[in-house]
């Protein structure tokens, strides 16, 4: 049997944390997260993310690296101008000019990063251990003289000689630093190494932990850091960052709240924050990601759906509402009677026992073809089983889109009820322009929200067929629709119009039912007279 702990000290995770402990978060999405390949945030995007982080109660926000350039400094100034409750910091290398540039941006604090491993000291900056210690103390004193909150990170700390790392951080704390930070810069450390290093740094004073996920240990190493005495965790929204990314801030927050009753952030804000960062960075949310993934509160299996309908906590560790989410029941080859019935009830479709059995069989058949069964699929199946003609409220008659050298434009001709409507729109691309044209044509009928928009190429080549799947909501109603076509603009518009038509059909059905119930009530009243 392999001894995973290799004789190292026990890690008392079970008893290390309780609700009396205080743990704070430092978000580095705007600095470390932006180091993910292909990510470049505008000043406006950084300000929006910083504002949402502050709304979520995150205590520390690293707004960027003032030393990067004037553009980055202007971005940091936009964040500091927001007058947030959070402590806004700048990343600073181990040189005085970086601290001066940070001061010029009006930040509340600096994270001073100095080399800790011999690899960085000798090969990267060509210095010595003693010079690093002396320089670090001087920089801390300078920053504190200017009333800054100061954290010192030993870069590549997990590969540093522990005795030297201790000496370095002791000198930093003695010089006035508010805290030291253990940094697993390249995601190298095992939990045993992390526990030992953080324990020894915690004996010197307040210590933070900064972990990366190259070995898949980012979250585990946060937990052993907390067990070892750390009380501040560095992380990024959605876990974005260089290479395999950083520990995900939202996962740390929910795990501390759910498992230990320790509050670090306003949990209901987490999903909105995740979506904001995803849209700003063009990094989609992984469907299987904890807290923020599409599948986190989505149930398909017949057994799971049935159990969830009987007891909402049956197959969920915490309420989706607690993190700003909603529970979803989707249909596929694992669907059962309870799940299909619940989905039909949501759309006000009444079915008999024999009809529900036939519908379930058709849903399973569709799911067996490796296809997700959307709401539109289900409603179409129900209409076919019941032999009902569908009375469409909205239908696309014609679509024209152009995206030449100028502004993308589009025009649509729709049939809405008994009338035809024509409208045009402009946008950032042909799809955006076409959607705006549809909204203009529908007017108040388009009072619906596009909750998700997903495109998949299902064939290869320049004439590839794409599938567009949208989810839209109107009031408390939600509907999902998928459409396929070689023209992505037409495909997108058809999917959205189908979704809008389904949403409007539900409202019309309810209105008709209300009229019938009212008529029935009048008949009873007359009979009583």
From TrEMBL:
GO terms for biological process: L-leucine biosynthetic process. Keywords: Amino-acid biosynthesis, Branched-chain amino acid biosynthesis, Transferase. The keyword Amino-acid biosynthesis applies. It comes from Haloquadratum walsbyi J07HQW2. NCBIfam families: PRK00915.1-2 (NF002085). Residues 508-529 are annotated as: Disordered. It holds the Pfam family HMGL-like. The keyword Amino-acid biosynthesis applies. This is Isopropylmalate/homocitrate/citramalate synthase. Residues 23-271 form the Pyruvate carboxyltransferase domain. Belongs to the alpha-IPM synthase/homocitrate synthase family. One of its GO terms (molecular function) is 2-isopropylmalate synthase activity.
């Amino acid at each position: 049997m392999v001894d995973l702990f290799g004789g190292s000290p026990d890690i008392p995770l079970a008893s290390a944390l309780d609700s009396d402990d205080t743990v704070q978060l430092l978000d580095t999405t705007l600095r470390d997260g932006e180091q993910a390949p292909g990510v470049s945030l505008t000043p406006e995007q950084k300000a929006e993310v910083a504002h949402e982080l502050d709304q979520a109660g995150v205590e520390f926000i690293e707004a960027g690296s003032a030393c990067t350039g004037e553009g980055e400094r202007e971005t940091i100034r936009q964040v500091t101008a927001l007058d947030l409750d959070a402590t806004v910091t700048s990343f600073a290398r181990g040189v005085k000019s970086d601290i001066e540039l940070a001061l010029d941006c009006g930040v509340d604090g600096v994270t001073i990063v100095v080399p800790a491993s011999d690899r960085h000291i000798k090969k990267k900056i060509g210095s010595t251990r003693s010079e690093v210690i002396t320089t670090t103390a001087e920089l801390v004193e300078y920053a504190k003289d200017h009333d800054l909150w100061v954290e010192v990170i030993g870069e590549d700390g997990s590969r540093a000689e522990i005795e030297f790392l201790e000496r370095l951080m002791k000198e930093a704390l003695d010089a006035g630093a508010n805290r030291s930070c253990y940094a697993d810069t390249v995601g190298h450390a095992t939990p045993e190494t992390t526990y030992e290093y953080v324990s020894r740094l915690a004996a010197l004073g307040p210590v933070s932990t900064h972990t990366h996920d190259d070995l898949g240990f980012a979250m585990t190493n946060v937990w052993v850091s907390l067990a070892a005495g750390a009380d501040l965790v560095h992380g990024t929204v959605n876990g974005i960052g260089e290479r395999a990314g950083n520990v995900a801030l939202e996962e740390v927050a929910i795990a501390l709240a759910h498992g230990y009753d320790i509050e670090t952030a306003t949990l209901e804000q987490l999903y909105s924050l995740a979506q904001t960062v995803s849209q700003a960075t063009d990094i989609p949310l992984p469907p299987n990601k904890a807290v923020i993934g599409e599948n986190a509160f989505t149930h398909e299996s017949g057994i799971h759906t049935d159990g969830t309908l009987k007891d909402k906590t049956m197959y969920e560790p915490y309420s989706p509402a607690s993190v700003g989410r909603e529970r979803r029941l989707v249909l596929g080859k694992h669907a059962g009677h309870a799940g299909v019935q619940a989905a039909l009830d949501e759309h006000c479709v009444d079915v008999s026992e024999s009809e529900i059995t036939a519908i379930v069989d058709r849903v399973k058949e569709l799911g067996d073809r490796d296809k997700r069964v959307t709401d539109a699929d289900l409603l179409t199946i129900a209409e076919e089983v019941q032999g009902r003609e569908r009375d469409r409220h909205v239908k696309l008659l014609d679509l024209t889109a152009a995206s030449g050298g100028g502004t993308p434009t589009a025009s649509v001709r729709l049939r809405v009820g008994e009338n035809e409507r024509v409208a045009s729109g402009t946008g950032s691309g042909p799809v955006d322009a076409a959607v705006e044209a549809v909204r203009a044509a529908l007017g108040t009928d388009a009072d619906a929200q596009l909750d998700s928009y997903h495109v998949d190429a299902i064939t290869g080549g320049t004439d590839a067929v794409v599938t567009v799947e949208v989810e839209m909501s109107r009031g408390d109603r939600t509907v999902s629709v998928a459409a396929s076509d070689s023209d992505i603009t037409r495909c997108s518009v058809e999917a959205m119009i189908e979704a809008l038509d389904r949403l409007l059909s539900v409202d019309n059905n309810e209105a008709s039912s209300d009229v019938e119930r009212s008529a029935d009530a009048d008949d009873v009243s007359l009979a009583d007279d």
